[in-house]
């Protein structure tokens, strides 16, 4: 594990052979939600010796419909992310969508996530790099794993070696995603940790209803394949009741299903190490 990840997880007791987990609700909906998810996932990860990063978007800038929920307010949501990190002694992450957001978010979270649609946005990558935070770049739905070397180079050339890449599938037609698992070993050739986004890769975007669909029943399949092909980490959005979630409910994992899934994945990881 890279030194910056060891530093990130310094407050946690974990099995060094395990994958790490980035998990939480899609967006900060309320204090009650983020605290409930953080409390339960942190306890599961401690039990299974999995290093854990809490994730929630402080604002959703990329929505199909203009009437969709975008957040409770930037500063209020960022403050809750910081509160989660301090209360549970967890690293936290959220996505940013414009270069001016980088410095703001960096004051509250440990990892800055670059959305897939923006993985080639040079000013955004440079602004994230200049904060000195870990930068997790999601691979665009329109690019290959090998081509992500350019995102890595932009960040490292800005003086920041703390880079991660996340696979989240490629656009297949207009309303579906497909995963090419060759991208996991190919992106590892860039000498950075590689993560599999097990929930967004199951999206069915561009629905005429204005709400993105999904196939959450396949999350286990995606996660198992990712572990088998060498992913260093897993990204899983989870919610106590996805049917009432204010964003991406159609592809989130129900919170009570997370522990049995992680138990299987820990056993699989041990088998393929």
Characterization of the model:
The chain has 273 residues and is an alpha/beta fold. It has one domain: Alpha-Beta Barrel (TIM Barrel), CATH 3.20.20.70. 35% of the residues lie in helices and 18% in strands. The chain contains 9 helices and 13 strands. Strands 1-2-3-4-5-6-9-12 form an 8-stranded parallel beta barrel, surrounded by 6 helices. Helix 2 runs parallel beside helix 9 and helix 5 (122-130) packs across helix 6 (149-157). Residues 206-211 have low confidence and may be disordered.
Essential attributes:
273 residues; alpha/beta; TIM Barrel; eight-stranded parallel beta barrel; two-stranded antiparallel sheet; 9 helices; 13 strands
Write the layout of secondary structure elements.
Layout: H1 3-8, E1 20-24, H2 31-48, E2 52-55, H3 74-88, E3 92-95, H4 99-106, E4 111-114, H5 122-130, E5 134-138, H6 149-157, E6 163-167, E7 170-171, E8 177-178, H7 183-188, E9 194-197, E10 203-204, E11 213-214, H8 219-228, E12 233-239, E13 253-254, H9 258-272
Parallel strand pairs: 1-2, 1-12, 2-3, 3-4, 4-5, 5-6, 6-9, 9-12, 12-13
Antiparallel strand pairs: 7-8, 10-11
* Succession of helices and strands: HEHEHEHEHEHEEEHEEEHEEH
Total number of β-strand segments? 13
Ends apart, CA distance between termini: 14 Å
Helix % is: 25-40%
**Overall residue-averaged pLDDT value:** 93
Using the coordinates above, name the CATH class. Alpha Beta
The chain-level structural class is alpha/beta
- Outline, from the CA principal axes? globular
């Amino acid at each position: 594990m890279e030194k910056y990840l060891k530093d990130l997880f310094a407050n946690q007791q974990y099995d060094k052979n395990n994958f790490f987990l980035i998990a939480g609700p899609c967006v900060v909906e309320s204090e009650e939600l983020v605290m409930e998810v953080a409390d339960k996932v942190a306890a599961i990860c401690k039990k299974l010796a999995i290093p854990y990063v809490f994730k929630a978007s402080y604002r959703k800038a990329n929505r199909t419909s203009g009437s969709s929920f975008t957040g409770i307010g930037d500063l209020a949501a960022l403050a809750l992310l910081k509160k989660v990190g301090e209360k549970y002694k967890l690293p936290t992450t959220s996505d940013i969508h414009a270069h001016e957001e980088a410095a703001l978010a960096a004051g509250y979270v440990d990892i800055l996530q670059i959305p897939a649609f923006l993985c080639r946005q040079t000013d955004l990558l440079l602004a994230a790099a200049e904060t000195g935070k870990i930068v997790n770049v999601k691979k665009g739905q329109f690019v290959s794993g090998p081509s992500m070397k350019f995102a890595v180079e932009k960040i490292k050339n800005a003086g920041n070696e703390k880079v991660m890449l996340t696979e989240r599938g490629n656009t297949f037609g207009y309303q579906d995603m497909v995963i090419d698992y060759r991208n996991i070993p190919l992106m590892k050739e860039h000498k950075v940790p590689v993560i599999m986004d097990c929930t967004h890769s199951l999206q069915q975007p561009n629905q005429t209803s204005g709400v993105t669909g999904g196939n959450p029943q396949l999350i286990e399949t995606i996660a198992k394949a990712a572990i088998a092909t060498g992913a260093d980490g897993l990204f899983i959005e989870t919610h106590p009741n996805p049917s009432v979630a204010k964003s991406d409910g159609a592809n989130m994992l129900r919170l009570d299903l997370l522990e049995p899934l992680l138990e299987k994945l820990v056993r699989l990881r041990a088998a393929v190490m």
